[in-house]
Amino acid sequence: MANSLYYLLFKTAHTQRKKNIPFLKELNLAPGQPKVLRYLYEQKRECLQKDITKGCDIEPATVSIMLNKLESNGFIKRNYSEENKRNVYIQLTELGKITFLKWQAYLDEREDITLRDFSKEERKQFINYLERLYDALLKEE
Fold first, then answer.
1. Residues 6+ apart with CB under 8 A from 72
2. Of these four, 24, 70, 83, 117, which has the most CB atoms within 10 Å of its CB?
3. Tens-digit pLDDT profile for residues 122-135
4. What residue ranges do the domains of the chain occupy?
5. Where in this chain does the record put each HTH marR-type domain (predicted)?
């Protein structure tokens, strides 16, 4: 049973997270926050909190806490709508963009190190398998 799919996925994710934490701390980020920075960076526009919640698949209360911390660290800015004060638009600051790009460069380097013994074809297959696994898990919901 030690090599079951779920055990290997858990073990791999746990090890990856442990290896990432020192660099996250260096960037003044907490686990989970890069996902929000990535979403905002890829949108290239201001987003509502509900968009971030949906796009990152994170609970609204969790997103709210993350946004408070990201704002206090200068990574994001909140802009309040003139028409509807309940609509708060979130945007990346320049520091947020720079920090995300540093994080992405780190991930690219980690990926190269982690998959160094995989051929290009094996890397493509591996990514395809992970995408299919993720899609299958989503279908269960």
1. none
2. 70
3. 999 999 999 999 89
4. 5-140
5. 2-135
Supply the CATH classification number for the domain 5-140. 1.10.10.10
Compute how many other C-beta atoms are within 10 angstroms of the C-beta atom of residue 98.
13
pTM summary value: 0.87
Query: What sign does the CA torsion over 18, 113, 2, 125 have?
Result: positive
Give pLDDT tens digits for 1-21.
Answer: 568 988 999 999 999 999 999
Quote the CA–CA distance of 20 and 110 in Å, as a whole number.
9
Comparing CA positions, the residue from 29, 79, 28 lying closest to residue 49 is 79
Exposed (0-12), middle (13-18) or buried (19+): which is 139, by Cβ within 10 Å? exposed
